[in-house]
Amino acid sequence: MSVDQVAVLGVGMHPWGKWGRNFVEYGVAAARDALGDAGVDWRDIGFVAGADTMRNGYPGYVAGATFAQALGWTGIPVTSAYGACASGTMALEAARQRILSGLCDVALVVGADTTPKGFLKPNSGERGDDPDWLRFRLLGATNPTYFALYAQRRVDLYGATPEDFAAVKVKNARHGLANPNARFRKEVTADDVAASPMVASPLRLLDICATSDGGAAVVLSSMDYARRHLSGADPAVRVAAVSTVTPTFPNTVIEMPNFATDSAAGLPVPDRSFKQAIGAAAYEQAGLGPDDVDVAEVYDLSTALELDWYEDLGFCGPGEAEKLLRDGATTLGGRLPVNPSGGLACFGEAVPAQALAQVCELTWQLRGTAAGRQAEGARVGISANQGLFGHGSSVILTR
Amino acid sequence: MGTTRVPAIDGWFTMPAEGSGEAPALIGTRCTGSGTYFFPPERVMSRAPGFADSALEDVTLSTRGRLWSYTDANYQPPEPYVPVTDPHIPFCIAAVELEAERMVVMGQVTAGVTVEDLRVGMEMELVLDTLFSETDDGGDTTEHMIWKWRPVTADEGSNR
Predict the structure, then answer these.
(1) Mean pLDDT score, B86-102
(2) Which of A201, A250, A259 is facing B39, going by the closest CB pair?
(3) SS3 content of chain B, % helix, strand, coil (to 5)
């Protein structure tokens, strides 16, 4: 199965940082950047999809309308999508579907966030029936707790070492040095990682991504619109797949914010884990496989999670990620650079913008314009992330 | 001035009276059609696809299992976590796989255990312990109880 493609006409970002300003400002800056990149006037946009932020009051819950109003109402329909870390991809998928169904020619997707300092914590109030509240109350389980459970399994089952995890950080820090949109642009050594405080064993502070402010936007169009817009030329970059799958019961991997996995005592365990299914759905839609991928942007909420993604996206077998890393395959210059942008290690997470930032980076990579961090000759790029409460997110771009 | 023990959350675990000799256990539900277990106890309907009309029965879950993974909390978690000590003393968190139920259940690990004491695959058992306690103006203390995991020592392991 491969589905019709849509064109990526333009991408744009507001640099990541801890700016402390209203998230709308970042979203508008990114949107104007993307519209300018596309050469499309705002008044020609037929649909806006906003990725929601939960930490900025009502405007954040209705992000599509918030950005449309800020850019100047033009009467077009909007949608607002929330899927935790996967929100950007949900919004992108809403725009793609609108285009593929023929309801509009060109659409704008925007996500932006302003984040508080420290651990992400649940919304306030006594909410004894909300697992995201209860996990903090009853377990003291933060987000890094869950990242650490996965990391420790790599240590105990596969012999991963703290040095392997640090090597992911060192690689990504180097990748991001020349990225003007990255928040942290500084070499990090293995010693720096080892000297940073232990947060959730085996993960240290520099193994875990920060939270950031930032904004990202994408302009998508139909292939016909793109060719007219480009005077008959084919668009350079196209969306070949968008995966927004959920887990299949029973999901036997502990997922944030849950207290327990599903039980496998009754029904057979699916052939693929949830994270494996995220990439598999994207590959199937695109009619491509792991061997076709030239560059990837994966969610390194922790250094160890990047290694999990190598295996879950099929770049190597289970337990082989450390070898792939050590061999330099995933470093720029290797056969399959991962996180050439610098990843979350250099950005810090701006939740609703992050999945779109991955698409922006892959677009630049496929255009060959990622100055100082270019994966040479890249023609197929894949992004992957997972939002809490069961949101898969993977996008395949081709040129 | 007395001490009262209350569950930190209702209906998730049994709390046998002290001196009863009964061991505490997590309370789950079981889908009678598929044989699937749920924890926390699912009360609305079976979430096993295809078994929406199957009855759910209350069950107590296995009190021992194998360590699936573990970590520790070296920084004090944010609210609504209730600080127990000032300054914060790190504690471990375990994910334990129950063999019969074929599910993994998280829990704090009892005080005094560090990650150095833990290893994926080792046997763990469930105990009740204080999550946090409050003392009112009259000097009465309420202990909010929670389940925790602790390693099964070699001696106990041989007696099971």
Answers:
(1) 97
(2) A259
(3) 5, 40, 50
